[in-house]
Amino acid sequence: MKIGFIGLGIMGKPMSKNLVKAGNELVVCDFNKDAVAELVAMGAKEAANGAEVAKECDVIITMLPNSPHVRSVALGENGIVDGAHEGTVLIDMSSIDPVESKKIGAELAKKGIEMLDAPVSGGEPKAIDGTLSVMVGGKKELFDKFYDMLMVMAGSVVYVGELGSGNVAKLANQIVVAVNIAAVGEALAFAKKAGTDPSLVYQAIRGGLAGSTVMDAKAPMMLSRNFKPGFRIELHIKDLNNALNAAHAISAPVPLTGQLMEMMQALKADGYEKEDHSSLVKFYEKIGNVTVE
What we know:
By secondary structure, this protein is α/β, with parallel strands linked by helices. The chain has helices at about 10-20, 35-40, 50-55, 65-75, 80-85, 100-110, 125-130, 140-150, 165-195, 200-205, 215-225, 235-250, 255-270, 280-290; strands spanning about 1-5, 25-30, 45, 60, 90, 115, 120, 130-135, 155-160. Helix 1 (about 10-20) packs parallel to helix 7, helix 9 (about 165-195) packs parallel to helix 14 and helix 12 packs antiparallel against helix 13 (about 255-270). The termini are far apart. The model has no long low-confidence stretch (mean pLDDT about 95).
């Protein structure tokens, strides 16, 4: 299958590499020419913009930072819409505002272009090993058609509902992850302040109801002071901002999301926005005058 891929960042580059390794023909586009060169060296073809990609491919994947970037690539000057034909399919795997997904999809539909929103969870490690979780919104027949292709990059691909539903699921995921990381940080800081070894507390509670994938991924990072980003604070801020906007648009109260946003903004003010979101523990360390290790 000939696939267009626009956006070769931390997530997009390994995802596109997995598609090439699976034998797919790729046409790629990104501002980062070093990333493009890596894919070209693997056999991909470079395109200058979204329009060029769309002229050559029936299906195009975008993996971009946020809603404005997806809108620009899809509908802007030299965008996908300028090179696409009726029946072209855009699969947007970015994490954006679901309201904007619907609006972009509606504008593309006027040109006969179909769209799925298919954001991912799992971070860079799972993007590299091809075990991402993908949440898909759009027409069920399109989901069925491209399921096998998406599974090349994923450990699970789940259909959620109409267009926009994929990003609703992703924002729900990001709410749960943020609250879980904060709870782990709060618990470990409490243990340290109480004079109990936080690493032993982690081992004691991880097998019970408090245990979670989030705890097992992030508690060891907190305890070893390893804040190398798998998912940066600044990206989680972006996702929580989209969650707040989407929630406010439908009058859905999300008080914990609002609290987590303020905690992450405090970390950004302290210069930690490029660190992993496990740095939430530093919020508790600062206000509690304690170091978790």
